Amino acid sequence: MATEDVSARYVDLDDWPTRDAVEAMFEGQLSAVAAVRPALGAISAAVDDAAEALRRGGRLVYAGAGTSGRVAVQDGAELPPTFDWPLDQLVFAMAGGPGALVKSAEGAEDDAADAIAKVDAAAIGPDDVVIGLAASGTTPYTVAFVRRATERGAVTLGMANNADAPLLAVARHPILIETGAEVVAGSTRMKAGTAQKAALNLFSTAVMIRLGRVYRGLMVHMRASNTKLHRRAEAMVAALAGCDEAVAGDALRQVDWDVKRATLVAQGLDPDLAGALIDRSGGSLRRALATLDAAGGASAGDAVAP
Predict the structure, then answer these.
(1) Taking a C-beta distance cutoff of 8 angstroms, is the pair 124, 149 a contact?
(2) CATH for 2-210?
(3) Mean pLDDT on 150-160
(4) Mean pLDDT value across the chain
(5) Number of neighbours of residue 274 by Cβ within 10 angstroms
(6) Catalytic hit among 4, 27, 52, 78
(7) Where is each SIS domain found (predicted)?
(8) How large is the angle between the packed helices 191-210 and 66-77, nearest 10 degrees?
(9) pLDDT per position as a tens digit, 164-201
(10) Which of 92, 161, 157, 95 shows the shortest CA–CA distance to 131?
(11) Residues 81-92: tens digit of each pLDDT
(12) Which fold does the domain 227-304 belong to in CATH?
């Protein structure tokens, strides 16, 4: 398979001057990101399907082994602090368990029975979104996990770096990212891993956008849990509500640092009415502001009335 091929160009890499070797690896990283472009259509279709399931309360489930599993966990772990994605709607299924994140458990990737058992134990179903990653696309654990999740009706993505891989055949949304031979043969932590991370960044961020957790390019659903993020929240509310940061800070404190609700409070809404309007708008600040604007001279209560 391509990710295991030895490239004739790099057979003497160990004898090259360091600068030449580093430049060659850098070029490989650039080509890895470029390899994501042909998959943009497949990623976009998966985003829309996934968002619909997650609106019903489903979970994001990341499955993988080795490097691919670690890349998957990194993407998912960043969603709670960035978008306040609920921890109870996030599942990690790393072959070999959590310990394999820091200590290799190579034999675990062959345990298809364990993967099937984990899918069943988690009661994965139609409202869940399962993302399975494997550079080779042949990893028994990941293939079995995605196949079983598909059988149970979940929205499944299979991301692989080799064409005609079994993982692509068992997923509802096959995402092929052909990165080709690695600079160091078989070292998929390099080109394949970089491409996977880039594709996951696109997928998960686009899902959060579709779910109303981004507005005007801002992380309006972030968890403001420290001083730095408090300052960021104040700046966001000030910009969105057209007020100064003192007013923004007061509004944020009234709603426990919820940027969306605070934006409405800073414009004069009662905190409870602000929350009701956000809920009625499906969590979308854009829709909430449009509703408020359309109400015109009506009272805030009229704006959120059914």
Answers:
(1) yes
(2) 3.40.50.10490
(3) 98
(4) 92
(5) 27
(6) 78
(7) 50-213
(8) 30
(9) 999 999 999 999 999 988 888 878 888 999 999 999 99
(10) 157
(11) 999 999 999 999
(12) Helicase, Ruva Protein; domain 3 (1.10.8)
| Domain layout of the chain by residue ranges | 2-210, 227-304
Instruction: Give the strand order in the sheet containing 173-176.
Output: 90-94, 60-64, 129-134, 155-160, 173-176
Residue owning tokens 């507005």: 215
Residue closest to 183 by CA, chosen among 16, 24, 23, 31? 24
Options 109, 151, 178, 234, the catalytic residue: 109
Which amino acid, 258? D
Q: What is the largest CA-CA distance in the chain?
A: 75
pLDDT in tens, 72-115: 999 999 999 999 999 999 999 999 888 888 777 778 888 999 99
Taking the C-alpha atoms of residue 295 and residue 179, their distance in angstroms, rounded to an integer, is: 52
Cα–Cα dist 17/20, whole Å: 5
Active site residue 78: yes
Say if CB 80 and CB 59 are below 8 A apart. no
Residue 4 is a catalytic residue: no
Q: What is the arithmetic mean of pLDDT over 43-63?
A: 97
